[in-house]
Every structure is written in structure tokens, then in C-alpha cells.
Design a protein that fits this description.
This protein is mostly helical. It has a domain of 143 residues: Four Helix Bundle (Hemerythrin (Met), subunit A), CATH 1.20.120. It is built from five helices and no strands. Helix 1 packs antiparallel against helix 4 and helix 4 crosses helix 5.
Length: 214
Amino acid sequence: MKKALESEGAGVIRRHQSTLIAEIAIAFPVTIALWLGVYYFLPPLGGMAEPLARLVFALKCCSIAILLCFLTGIEAVAHERLRSPAIDPLSGYETRRLTINLRYLQNTLEQLVLFVPGLFALAFYCDDGHSMRAVVATTVVWIATRFAFWIGYHYGSQHRAIGAPGMMQSMLVLLYVCARIGYEIAGPAGAIAPLIIFGCLEAVLVRATKPLSA
């Protein structure tokens, strides 16, 4: 009986993993197409010659992203609390929808910590209004993938994977700007150093978080 339950549980995990992988495989090319579409079809931005102007524009993009993706999550939780026993946070009352919205909020807060500094650094390293289109494209993709994550989560926890490209984008932006910073400090070796260090840390994490055998 125990082995049968363990086998069934392993089967559920494998199906969940298969769904995650399949949706990520679909989401990535769609996300790349969206980024490229915004970048190449958006006209160059004016008045972006000075670093301060580019940083101010990045601040505006962050404000839009926070308004649409984070404040809406706060509002979703607040509205449900206002009209249910969850108005008392200590009551223990929590619907599935409320739980998902709370987890979306937590995850979005975590993603913002990656997105915001990366976007500011990306804007700083852009040269002009042409390259600043990358900041707009990155913001649009981040917003779209946040909504994809949120909506998918409500259909099933495994469907939150369609928002994964947003996380990957933030990671790539951070790797890019850290490489630029390293290059400024120590040339090509300095650019490669943070990439190698991050790669090693990632490998350690993959190994360290491997499930233990029963």
C-alpha cells in the first residue's frame, strides 16, 4: 500500500513537471517574439542622450509595472478580505483564490527586487533613444509574464510556468549589466568573472537542492 501511494505520488510529480516544461517551452519563443516586436516596431525615444534622462525613464517604466502588477495584486487581496471573514487576518479563513493571490503578491515582490535594479542599470548602459527601446521591451515582457503567471496560477499551480520567461529575462539583464560593470573594473576578465561565479553558484544550488533518497 505504501509503495503504491509512493508510486502514485511520483506519477503526479512527473505529470506536474511535464506540464511545467511544456508550458515553459511554449512561453519562451512567444516572449522572445514579444520582446523583439516591441524593440523593433517602437520608434526611437527622444531626449535620451543624458544618463539622468534614461534613469528617469526607467523610473517611469518601474512605476507602470508596479501599478499594473503589484498594486492590482494588493487590491485583489484587499477586496476579498473586505467582503469575507478574511477581513480578520487572524481568523484563519482563506479561500483558494485568496491563497493564490497572496502567493502571487509574494512572488511579484521577489521578482521586483530583480527587475527594478536590473532595469535601471540597463537604462544606464543604453547609449541613446534607439537602444532605450530595450528598456521598454523589457518592461512590457515583465508585465505580460506577471499576468501570465497570475492567470495561469488560478487555472492550476502547474500553469504558473507560463510566467517563467519573466524571471529568466530579469536574470539575463542582471548578468548583462554585471558583466558590463566587471568590464569597467577589469576589462574582459572582469566581464567574465561574475558570469563564472554565478554559474558555479547555480551548479552548487542545483546539486544541493537535489531531493534526498527515502
